[in-house]
Amino acid sequence: MSIKAWVSKGLISSISQIVDLFFPPLCSGCGGYVKGNRFFCLECESKIKPVLPPFCPLCGRPYHLGEMHLCGECLKDTPFFKAARSVFFYEGPVREAIISFKFKENIALRKFWVREILFFLGSFLQKIKPEVILPVPLHIKRLRQRGYNQSLLIAKDLAAKLGLRCEARVLRKVKATPPQVGLTAAERERNVRGSFAVKKKERIKGKCVLLIDDVFTTGSTVNECARVLMQAGAKAVFVITLARATDAV
Ligand SMILES: [Zn+2]
Ligand SMILES: [Zn+2]
User: 58 CA distance to ligand 2 centroid (A)?
Assistant: First the structure.
């Protein structure tokens, strides 16, 4: 390394040390101070739980014990997506981090999420071989309120890492719907029905689509997205979410 590079590297690290002194990095789970380039403190890190097998190979519903087998829901009503996977359980520090990523502009977390998707779901991605990545869109009204779509940030970064195209404007939320929080599975399904549309269909026609969302609760949102994407001519739709509601059976 040249002297110039050493000086500039040294300078950058001292600048970042000074910045850390005045604006110390905070844990995305508990808000406490963390050292260095970490996103979580050690205590929160120890509470983060990835979704590991066994789970339903189709919707990703986690099981406490046993082998991989289709869940009752998928047997009763086959989803429109081919398979859904989540990185973590939606609880504790992950829940806090998703809330701050979504509503409190903690967008630096995108780096963490993408790194973890690649780590935990790398083999899934290799198997499904997506050709195009789409975020679950927000309605324009909500996008204006929030200023950004958290799922688009992930979709863009993941697409860049995988050398794929991210299509931000193909899937549209055309009907504003009340938040899904507090609704039953049947109400959620009714709530989102007919609220998405596909524009520029040729961009996904005959393609294997990977859909990105933040939380998988009952799957009604991603299933409705998958329904309109399949109707628009997608070859297959796969889903990755950052977290999965904790309803392990
Ligand atoms: Zn913490
Ligand atoms: Zn299932």
Answer: 5
**Looking at residue 145, what DSSP letter applies?**
H
> Residues with Cβ < 8 Å from 212, sequence gap 6 or more?
133, 134, 135, 136, 151, 154, 155, 158, 239, 240, 241
Q: What is the pLDDT of residues 133-177, one digit of tens each?
A: 999 999 999 999 999 999 999 999 999 999 999 999 999 999 998
Residue 8: left if φ>0, alpha if ψ -120 to 50, beta else—which one?
alpha
Cα–ligand 1 centroid distance for 221 (angstroms): 30
- CATH numeric code, 49-245: 3.40.50
Asked whether 215 and 97 are in contact (CB, 8 A), the reply is no
The residue ranges of the chain whose pLDDT is under 70 are 1-24, 247-249
Name the closest ligand to CA 29: 1
Is 120 buried (19+), middle (13-18) or exposed (0-12) by CB count in 10 A? Answer: middle
**pLDDT at position 12:** 56
Pairing of strands 171-173, 196-198: antiparallel
Residue type, 249: V
Q: Which two tokens stand for residue 84?
A: 């859904």
CA of 36 to the centre of ligand 1 (A): 14
| Proximal ligand: closest to the CA of 26 | 1
